[in-house]
Design a protein that fits this description.
heterodimer; A: 198 residues; Rossmann fold; 3-stranded antiparallel β-sheet; 26% helix; 24% strand; B: 306 residues; alpha/beta; 2 domains; 4-stranded parallel β-sheet; 12 helices
């Protein structure tokens, strides 16, 4: 007896989806550079800071931010991976998810400033799961959040400290961030349906 | 993922590998200060044990608790079973209590299969008679992978009372699925006739332990199950130990990297000498620790999704 797989189709109306490129490769580079500068500014030189990427695309983004910070001010910011699967509140709604690795940098997170890194901020539920996971792993002095895209529609009182781009979206639309490391190309796209079909 | 885990044959190579990979991630939790995950909060796991067990029951209990499931321990002693209640009536009681998973150990082969047809939740076979013990096989495969880096291509000897061993049966099925070469070794009276064709066409059989040892990566010693023997299968304990027991002299015939496993409980002096059981090659204590991670993985994969 197999579990039914979650439906993957997002377009049900039959009309062809519209695709709009929101950030090109160059735009994305600039956004990452700006967030790296903002982190340095807001954390006063990124001392005692740890970047934790949330899989999948948060992980390469955290590495890029650390690389830019190192290039700008030659500070080495430790980078880690925080898998939040086991802390999600929607596990029962979908087929069983595979668990990814959690990998904290040596020295852990106790007493450090943790900056969570993810690609898109939407409902806020992933970040909530990440906060729960963090409290089981240690006690950071503070936690901040960096995202490439904030698309709105929050379901929890959560906001980002560093935002690459605010994109007003309809709930039915999909924001797709692709990265060279995971998808072969750097791009942010908005996939939606033709107007008037909803 | 499958709904029940009744036999090691329920798992194909892909699913078995998923269990082992998941267990590897969950093992990291055992090293943390807070050894608890909220994943199965609100789910109920019933441990239904009709047979004595220490490590398996405790292991399942620890696994379920680390995932925040509620655990109800039910042992036949001190329950309505001793008043004559049937397995089916017990199952219906559990069903009425809303058990999401039932972990069952039963002296009758096939009992978990019957149980699975009576309850809505998932059923995990924790050992049924002389039939199967799939989570033991999974934790053994996990231990091999963590010690030797792989399972595929390994040569594993399963030695001793193969006839009465559910551990042997589940291991043969799972290890061959994962691409290992398996040889069962023991006195002819304790190896089932036609065991090869019945379990796996690639299974080899040998009655000579000394001849097999130099060629194996893993030697798995089985306990001689006196409680299931109503016949004399070998002349004396001493003769059994002499021919099929693993002592230090025999251990030296193993290749340098080979490991010694035992599912426990072991009878020191019978199938294994203390010197071997406590040697660096022995993974016996590791197997117990790995058991918790593997059972967490099984519970997560059965109960974690829709």
């Amino acid at each position: 007896m197999a579990y039914p797989q979650a439906a993957s189709s997002s377009t049900t109306s039959g009309s062809p989806p519209t695709v709009k490129v929101i950030l090109t490769e160059t735009d994305l580079q600039r956004v990452v550079d700006r967030i790296a500068h903002q982190i340095l500014e807001k954390t006063d030189g990124a001392d005692g800071t740890v970047l934790l990427g949330i899989p999948t695309r948060g992980v390469p983004l955290a590495r890029r931010l650390a690389a830019r910070i190192a290039a700008f001010e030659s500070v080495d910011v430790p980078v880690g991976v925080l898998d939040v699967t086991l802390y999600r509140d929607d596990l029962r709604l979908k087929a069983t998810r595979a668990i990814g690795p959690t990998d904290l940098p040596p020295g852990g997170i106790d007493g450090r400033r943790v900056i969570l890194v993810d690609d898109v901020l939407f409902s806020g539920r992933t970040v909530r799961a990440a906060l729960d996971a963090l409290s089981d792993l240690g006690r950071p002095s503070s936690v901040q959040l960096a995202v490439i895209v904030d698309r709105g529609h929050r379901e929890l009182p959560i906001r980002a400290d560093y935002v690459g781009k605010n994109i007003p979206t309809a709930r039915t639309e999909i924001v797709k961030v692709t990265l060279a490391e995971t998808d072969g190309i750097d791009e942010v796209k908005l996939l939606g349906e033709e107007t008037g079909t909803k | 993922m499958i709904k029940h885990l009744l036999s090691a044959a329920d798992l194909d190579a892909q699913h078995a590998t998923l269990v082992l990979d998941t267990a590897a991630e969950l093992a990291a939790v055992s090293g943390r200060e807070v050894k608890k995950l909220p994943t199965l909060r609100g789910r109920t796991v019933v441990n239904l044990f009709y047979e004595d067990s220490t490590r398996t029951r405790i292991s399942f209990e620890a696994a379920a608790k680390r995932l925040s499931a509620d655990v109800i321990n039910f042992s036949a002693k001190g329950s309505s079973v001793s008043k004559g209640e049937s397995l089916k009536d017990t199952a219906l009681t559990l069903q009425a209590m809303g058990a999401d998973a039932v972990v069952v150990r039963h002296p009758a082969s096939g009992a978990p299969h019957r149980l699975a047809s009576w309850v809505d939740g998932s059923v995990v076979n924790a050992g049924d008679g002389t039939h199967e013990h799939p989570t033991q096989a999974l934790l053994d495969a996990y231990t091999m992978r963590s010690r030797l880096g792989r399972v595929a291509g390994l040569h594993v000897a399963i030695v001793g009372d193969v006839l009465h061993s559910r551990v042997a049966r589940s291991n043969v099925l799972l290890l061959t699925t994962l691409g290992a070469k398996v040889t069962v070794v023991g006195p002819p009276t304790l190896i089932p006739v036609d065991v090869g064709p019945a379990l796996s066409p690639d299974l080899r059989v040998s009655y000579d332990l000394d001849a097999v040892l130099p060629d194996v990566d893993v030697v798995m010693m089985l306990r001689v199950q006196r409680e299931r023997m109503n016949d004399s299968f070998f002349p004396s304990t001493r003769e059994y130990a002499r021919r099929y027991g693993l002592d230090a002299t025999r251990m030296r015939r193993l290749p340098e990297h080979a490991i010694v496993m035992h599912p426990g409980p072991m009878v020191r002096g019978m199938e294994i000498t203390p010197e071997v059981a406590d040697s660096a090659r022995s993974t016996i204590v590791e197997q117990v620790a790995n058991g918790v991670s593997v059972r967490m993985a099984v519970l997560y994969l059965l109960l974690g999704g829709k």
